[in-house]
Amino acid sequence: GYCDEVEDGPFFGRNISIEEAPFVAGILVSPQELCTGTLVSDNIVLTSKNCLQSVKTIRDIKVFLGTNEIKEDSSNYYTVSAIYTNLEAKETGGPIDLINIALIKLNDHVEISQTISPIGIEPKPWPTDTELYFRQCSAMGFDKHNQTGAMGRLYSSEVVSGIGPKGCGCAKLG
Predict the structure, then answer these.
(1) For residue 117, how many other CB atoms are within 10 A of its CB?
(2) Does residue 13 contact residue 149 with C-beta atoms inside 8 Å?
(3) 77-78 and 80-84: which strand pairing?
(4) Which residue numbers delimit the Peptidase S1 domain (predicted)?
(5) b or e along 119-137 (b: 16 or more beta carbons within 10 Å of the residue's beta carbon)?
(6) For 139, how many CA atoms within 13 A lie in the half-sphere containing its CB?
(7) For position 9, what pLDDT does the model report?
(8) For residue 157, what pLDDT is reported?
(9) Which residues of the chain carry a pLDDT beneath 50?
(10) What is the DSSP track for 71-86?
C-alpha cells in the first residue's frame, strides 16, 4: 500500500519564491543541519522538537526568514532568545511524548512584509462527511537540492493530508 512506498529522504518539489510562503522559516542548527519552521507570530516560530535535538546552546541556532535560499555564509538571520517544548514528556513516558513540537522565540520582532509574514489560519473547514478523510495541501520547506546539493533552497510540493482512522492508517504512534 501507500504507506509501504513512503521513504525518508530529501524533500522533492518545485522551487518557489518566498512571496508564495512568507511564513516559512529555515532553521540552521549546525552548518550541515537544516530544518523548517513556520512563523506563527512576529517573534515565534513553530517547528518540530526533532529539529532541535542536536542543539547544544540556543546561540548556535540561526532562523532565516524572507529568503528563498540559505547559504552557510548568510548573515540575514534572526537569533533565538528561548525554546519552548513539553519538558514533562521526558518524565512521563506517556502519550505526551508523541507531541513533537517546539516553539522558538526570536530575540527580535520581525518586520511584517511581502516576504515575511505569520501564517494565516485556513478558513476552509475540514470535510465532515465520514468518507472525506483526505485533503490536498501544499508542503513547503527548506532542504538540499537533489541535483546540485545546494543547501537551503525553498521548495513546495503538493501532498495529501489525512485525518481520522482512514486518513492516518500509516501513522506510527509509538
Answers:
(1) 18
(2) no
(3) unpaired
(4) 13-164
(5) eeeeeeeeeeeeeebeeee
(6) 14
(7) 38
(8) 82
(9) 1-11, 171-174
(10) -TT---EE-EEEEE--
Cell output for 159: 501532498
All three cell numbers of 169: 492508517
CATH architecture of 2-167: Beta Barrel (2.40)
Q: Read off the pLDDT of residues 53-70 as tens digits, 9 standing for 90 and up.
A: 889 999 999 999 999 888
User: Max Cα separation, the chain?
Assistant: 50
Cell of 144: 538540499
Length of the chain equals 174
Sequence letter at residue 52: L
**DSSP for residue 55:** -
Query: How much is the pLDDT for 171?
Result: 47
Cα 50 from Cα 56, distance rounded (Å): 13
Provide the pLDDT for residue 12.
58
